[in-house]
Each structure stands twice: as C-alpha cells, then as structure tokens.
Amino acid sequence: MENTIIDKSKPVMLTGATGYVAGWIVKKLLKQGFTVHAPVRDINNVEKLKYLNEIAADAVGSIKYFEADLLKEGSYDEAAKGCEIIFHTASPFSMEVKDPMKELVEPALLGTENVLNTANKTESVKRVVLTSSCAAIIGDAKDCLTLPNNTATEKDWNFSSTVNHQAYSYSKTIAEKKAWKINKNQSRWDLVVINPSFVIGPGINPNGSSESFSLVRQMGDGQLKTGVPEFFVGVIDVRDLADAHLKVAFNPQSKGRHIISNQEVSFLQLSKILQKEFGDKYPFPKRELPKFLVWIMAPTVGFKRKMIWLNIGYHWLVDNTKSKTELAMKYRPVEESIIDFFQQQVDAGYFKSKV
Ligand code: NAP
C-alpha cells in the first residue's frame, strides 16, 4: 500500500474514549484541534464523561458522543462518517472475570470485527490504529526462554494463551489476528497496530477501572504488605502511550506492529521506588514471597496455579527498538510514571496514610 496521507481537518473516531488508555489520546487530539467522534456505551453516564468534558472545555478541538457497543453490529457506523482515521482502543482489560469467553473474548473479537466492518463500509476511512497489546506477542513470561536473546519482537505471536489460561492475553491475540485478516481482504485502509506493555501513570479519570489501577492501589492499601510475587512486567507510561498512538496515526510511513514499552521492572522494584518517595507513610510491600507459597495460595486469591508457575521468576523482555527508530519515542523514567500514578491515587482518597 502507498504511504497514507491523513487530512487533519477531518474528524477522527476513537472507540473506548471513557477508558484509561484512551483518555490521554483524546486529550492530545483535542489539544491539537481535532474533532473527536467518541462512540461510548452509555451516552448518559455523566460521571464517566465528565473527565472528557472537562478536557474538551479547555481545548481547541471538540468531542462529539455517539452511542455504540462492541457487541452491537453497525453501532459504530454513524460515528465513523467523514473520518479518515479510526482509533480502536475499546476492549475489556480485567483479570477478575467469571466467564472469560463472554466477558473478554467475545467483546475483543466481535468488537474488532464490528469496528473494522464499519471501516469497510465507510468510504472516508484511510487508516485504522488498533490498540492491541504485548499480550498478543508474549503469553507467559516463561515463553521468552524460547526466543532469541529471550526477548520478543514485533515478529512474535503469543502461542500459549487459551480461553482457559491467560484469557485476556488470548482475547488480545485473536482480536489482533482477526484485524490483520480483515485488513488484508481490502485495499482502501491500512492497519497500524500499537502493542503496549503494562500501562501505568495518572489517568484522566482517577477512578478508572482498568486492571492498571489494581496494582498501584494494592501497593498502597495494605493488600500486599506481606510481600509481592516475583513478577516481572514491561511498563509504559499512559502519556507516552498516547504520543505513540498519535505518531503512528499521522505518520504516512507507519506500518505493521509497534511494541510500546519503556522497560522491564519487578513488582518489588516498583514498590522500592514508592518507598523511596513516600517513605513509611503507606504499607508498601518490602519483600518477595517464595514461589511455592504463592503457588499454594494462588486459588484463594483468584489466580490459577498454572499462571503462577509459568510467570513467577521469569524475566519478561521485549525489544522496543522499532519504537525508538521509527517513531522517535522517548520514554519518561519509570520513577516518574509510578510516582505520579500513586500520587494521583493518594489525592483521589484511595489510601489511608499511617502518619
Ligand atoms: P479500560 O480503562 O477498562 O478501557 C476499556 C474501554 O473499553 C472502556 O472505554 C470501555 O467502555 C470500553 N468497552 C469495554 N467493553 C465494551 C463494550 N462491550 N462496548 C463498548 N465499549 C466497551 O482499559 P484500558 O486499560 O484503558 O484498555 C484500553 C485498551 O488498551 C484495551 O484494548 C487494552 O487491551 C489495551 N491495553 C491496555 C493495557 C494496560 O495495561 N492498561 C496494556 C496493553 C493494552 P466503558 O467505559 O463503557 O466500560
């Protein structure tokens, strides 16, 4: 496909605008003067929309809401009219689900089909920016041992997740594969994909429900005071991630997948950064728990033993070279991301200070 030139005077559509990752993308688009078409599940949810409305009130651009649901065929058609770019971020991100097929896989997969069918029907659309995940690249951390340098690149695909094991990762993998398939069956719009690692940093809405908030809240509310599992994660600041979305959207040469990840850290390293900044004010975890103990306890705290076995103690490594060379990404230090995130949760009243 030729290089894609986007007319910046046209509206852009963004799914999942009420979400954590999308909030900063909306903020940056509005700051640059775009008209953002935001299909949301509940157009009357004043509480969820208030953060977006506050940003829009001070911005050059404007936001227009439409009602849509990932599972409702054709519900994105109206919002897409006249748009050259579609950002598709909407997809549930939760580890605590009762029915993974219904709660994760179906919205991810059918939602992607639904939104991309809208792209097919809408003559103005030239590019779709899909928010996938590094979870579509690596399943369990142990899988990294099968890769050259134990490090994953954009060429790799998650081969180990299923609906019964790491269901969220599975949902992201099959949704991204479906997106590439739909893209290949037509030639009007190109697909560029963002594959973020675990997102941290302050949200537009401090009361977000994305899984990203669970870890930072548990760090300060005492749930982890006896210790943390030796988990390693790649992290990316939510503000940097929004920059990456805008860069791929408007760069005519953007192609393919993009790993967007700053660096690997362990849960204990994140806690140590917080301890250095906030001292003993909050019950931060101070040690790592033995793997066998976490393995035994796993079902009582809602985790599967297989997941614990294949992830604790294994490094989780991805190569972010493409993001630096092709997108000129500059990642802010992890210290800034986690401290700003924690401070936002303090200000929002999530923790009781001990002093
Ligand atoms: P989030 O805050 O929970 O946002 C999810 C968004 O999807 C919300 O706007 C939600 O709308 C929308 N949504 C869910 N089910 C829907 C449905 N049936 N119909 C319409 N909209 C629906 O999660 P997030 O962390 O921002 O995640 C956003 C995207 O980033 C997802 O694709 C996720 O896989 C990806 N991602 C996230 C991370 C991370 O660490 N956070 C890492 C990698 C990739 P409501 O407000 O109506 O619920």
Task: Give structural notes.
The chain is of the alpha/beta class. It has a seven-stranded parallel sheet with strand order 3-2-1-4-5-6-9, with helices on both faces. It has a three-stranded mixed sheet with strand order 7-8-10. The chain contains twelve helices and ten strands. Helices cover 39% and strands 14% of the residues. The chain has helices at 20-31, 46-57, 77-80, 100-121, 167-184, 211-220, 238-250, 267-278, 291-297, 305-311, 321-326, 334-347; strands spanning 12-15, 35-40, 62-67, 85-88, 127-131, 190-196, 198-200, 232-237, 256-260, 263-266. The radius of gyration is 20 Å and the shape is globular. Helix 6 (211-220) links the parallel strand 7 (198-200) and strand 8. The structure holds NADP nicotinamide-adenine-dinucleotide phosphate (NAP).
